[in-house]
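Tutorial handout. Part one gives the primary structure; part two gives the three-dimensional structure as tokens.
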Amino acid sequence: MKKYVAEFIGTFTLVLFGCGTAVVSGVAVGHLGIAFAFGFALIAMAYGIGPVSGCHINPAVSLGVFTAGRMNVKDLVGYIVGQVLGGIAAAAVLRVIAEGMSGYSVAANGLGQDGWGPGYQMGYSLQAGMVFEFVATLIFVIVILGSTQGGAPTAMAGLAIGITLVVIHIFGINITGVSVNPARSLGPALLVGGQALSQVWMFLIVPSIAGIVSGIIFRTKVLDM
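Part two.
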């Protein structure tokens, strides 16, 4: 149970500070600031809860770890439940905070939700969004599985993983807002509703498939040390 609680706290932190920076301070800090908020939140949790749960805080990562043969079904389910609940709780807390701003509305300003198409960021197509989310998640989970495998300098893993998330956000915020994490996308989408909720399926399915593919790569020893 400690592991599942740790995953709840870690995902809560990632979504609250990552999406929160986009909503509350996005105009001031820009895309670069948002990218660093997500990456730094992940680095903090990697060292804060990593010794307890491994700090997956992302169903796509847990699916990759499971497929690679590094966790059992019971933990996979427990991790994903904790992650999803953490993402929803963070979105709820962010909504309460954001509604304290004069002129803010969930419908108009959102909660840092992901999306694509007309009216979202630069209007990238669904196809572009799917390709980005698949490739970005694949690379992200490969970095995680590679930097935490036996023989790797695991003390530096949290830093490498966080930097990777920063780079992914710098590249992809204009495309989809960047998910690479179903729990990060689901929480805000549930509370915003509308287009965000109707499009969330892509951010649940594509990163999950990419995580599984990453796990297969390591299970088949293609990148194993």
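Part three, for discussion. The first helix runs from residue 2 to 48. The chain has a mean pLDDT of 95.
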